[in-house]
Design a protein that fits this description.
protein histidine kinase activity; Beta-Lactamase; Heat Shock Protein 90; alpha+beta; 562 residues; histidine kinase; cell membrane; 16 helices; Sig_transdc_His_kin_SpoOB; kinase; 5-stranded antiparallel β-sheet
């Protein structure tokens, strides 16, 4: 026989949806408040009504206890038709009291609602009233439970001759209390209805804002969000509608070099003024925006959110930029080797022809000229620039420049001792400026790039001039902005980083980087580096790989990866 699956019973409990849970909780709160308020109102109401009844009875008793009644009490006998009974009944009917009893000092009644009880002793102790004190109480007597007021009865001389006791039936007080209850419940029901409507409106709003999810779903999403934000290898920065940072994941803190104290502050306050703060604040728009933060090259994207804020993502492109520059260096090396190979083949063919024509003297002179040109260029550079790392880089750049049809010249005024504090940083600065100058001058008539390095005290001033089209006046600050470039980017990386690094390295050493028009046309970049030279002393031991730099390697990547 086939067994039937067991029926799964649904457990009773709170509904899962936030809307239903919030509505039920608010209804329960509103109902509880209504019941509590009603109870708190009813609790003292009975005592208040009792107090009012006793005070009313006391007031009637005080009105009855006049000297005239005291004189009648002395001059007459207790009787059903006596003046004391007549006056007491008149007051009772006028005030709608339950009873008005006048008694003498022995406690004998001179008035009563039941005439047959006149002349009898009262059922309750009148001692306090006969002693001269006013009494308010709720007690049981011959007429049942009542609110009582007792006062002494004094004659014209102030002597106590008896007492007056007035009672108001307690059932009438309870009736007033019961009569007030329906009105109270009506008010409580109205308040509960208003509370229920407000609870429904609030629950609807909560439902829209939470997308009708259950509390457990919201808690799960929050846990997943925290794990995702702190686990991904991209920086995430969330900003509120006021432009203040409200969230920074671990990777964003690492890339931006800030801590959790940046939360609650604007990008300008947390990061300082600059392109990175402009991108995060939305003052610079676009996709895949390049920015430099410290020694890192970052790619930023910013997306607005429905609540008026924004979320920005940051990717670290330092290593990719380094690989791109290494690829450029490799291509430059290949181009230089191809040019040297081609030129070497032409020279060998020329030498072979001279030998076949038996023009031996011309062949010797030709070989001497070829070797001399390279030696003179290298000797001139190393004589004026004594730092081997920088000299090797410029020798390699001269080879690449010759292949591109650009004359790279080191100014006669160049003098740089071998006392650089940060030779790799200066190599980065010179390499980037020379590369930009070669790009600008290549293809033009009489293309030329001139490099000048002068040392004055401990300050190094670098000037790189080219014969290119120059830089427009309105663009002379923009060229140093990360991501800004007038040239088409290569396939493997973006442009607009080199000059930004130049200015950042200069400012990090307390210097400056500017651009102006060169004499005769083109552009002239000037970089001033205070404290760039060490005090005169032993020469630093540099680890130099001349071959790679002489082939045109751009060391800017070394700065980015440090």
């Amino acid at each position: 026989m086939r067994s039937t699956p067991p029926v799964r019973r649904r457990r009773l409990g709170l509904p899962r949806r936030v809307f239903s849970q919030v509505l039920l909780m608010q209804l329960a709160i509103a109902a509880g408040v209504a019941v509590l308020a009603t109870g708190l109102f009813l609790a003292p109401l009975g005592d208040q009504l009792d107090d009012q009844a006793m005070r009313r009875a006391l007031a009637i008793a005080q009105t009855t206890a006049r000297p005239q009644v005291a004189e009648e009490l002395r001059s007459t006998r207790p009787a059903a038709d006596g003046p004391v009974q007549t006056e007491a009944e008149r007051i009772r009917k006028a005030t709608r009291a339950e009873y008005v009893v006048v008694m003498d000092r022995q406690g004998v009644r001179w008035s009563h609602t039941d005439p047959e009880r006149i002349g009898e002793v009262v059922s309750t102790d009148p001692g306090q009233a006969l002693a001269g004190r006013d009494v308010m109480e709720i007690d049981d007597g011959t007429l049942g439970r009542s609110a009582r007021g007792k006062v002494p009865l004094r004659d014209a001389d102030g002597d106590i001759v008896g007492a007056v006791s007035v009672g108001i039936a307690y059932d009438s007080v309870r009736a007033r209390l019961i009569h007030a209850v329906p009105g109270l419940f009506a008010y409580a029901g109205g308040a509960l209805a208003v509370g229920a409507l407000a609870a429904w409106l609030i629950s609807r709003r909560v439902q829209r804002q939470t997308r009708d999810l259950a509390f457990s779903d919201i808690a799960g999403l929050l846990a997943e969000r925290e794990a995702m934000l702190h686990g991904i290898r991209e920086g995430v920065v969330a900003l509120d509608r006021g432009g203040r940072v409200r969230l920074l994941n671990d990777e964003a803190q690492r890339l931006l070099g800030v801590g959790a104290e940046a939360v609650g502050r604007s990008p300008d306050e947390a990061l300082g003024t600059g392109r990175t703060a402009d991108v995060l604040a939305g003052r610079v728009t676009g996709t895949d925006l390049l920015t430099v933060r410290g020694r890192r090259v970052l790619v930023a994207n910013r997306m607005p959110t429905d609540d008026g804020g924004a979320v920005a993502t940051l990717r670290d492109r330092t290593e990719l930029e380094q690989l791109g520059r290494e690829l450029d260096s490799t291509r430059g090396l290949i181009d230089a080797l191809r040019a040297q190979d081609h030129e070497h083949a032409n020279r060998m063919h020329t030498l072979l022809g001279l030998l076949e024509l038996e023009m031996y003297d011309d062949a010797v002179e030709f070989v001497g000229e070829v070797v001399g040109d390279h030696r003179v260029t290298a000797e001139q550079i190393t004589e004026r620039i004594q730092d081997p790392l920088l000299a090797a880089m410029l020798v390699g750049k001269a080879t690449v420049a010759a292949e591109r049809g650009v004359a790279l010249r080191v100014s006669d005024r160049t003098r740089l001792p071998d006392r650089l504090v940060d030779p790799r940083g200066l190599v980065t600065v010179v390499g980037n400026l020379v590369d930009n100058a070669l790009d600008a001058a290549a293809g033009g008539p009489h293309a030329r790039v001139e490099v000048e390095l002068r040392a004055e005290g401990r300050t190094v001033t670098l000037r790189v001039r080219d014969t290119g089209p120059g830089v427009a006046v309105e663009d002379r600050e923009l060229v140093f902005t990360a991501g800004w470039s007038t040239k088409e980017p290569p396939a493997h990386r973006q442009r607009g980083i080199g000059l930004s690094l130049v200015r950042r390295l200069a400012e990090r050493q307390g210097g400056s980087a500017t651009v102006d028009a060169a004499y005769g046309g083109g552009a002239e970049f000037v970089v001033v580096l205070p404290e760039a030279l060490a005090e005169a002393g032993p020469k630093p031991d540099h680890a130099v790989t001349v071959t790679a730099n002489a082939a045109g390697a751009n060391p800017a990547a070394e700065e980015e990866s440090r």
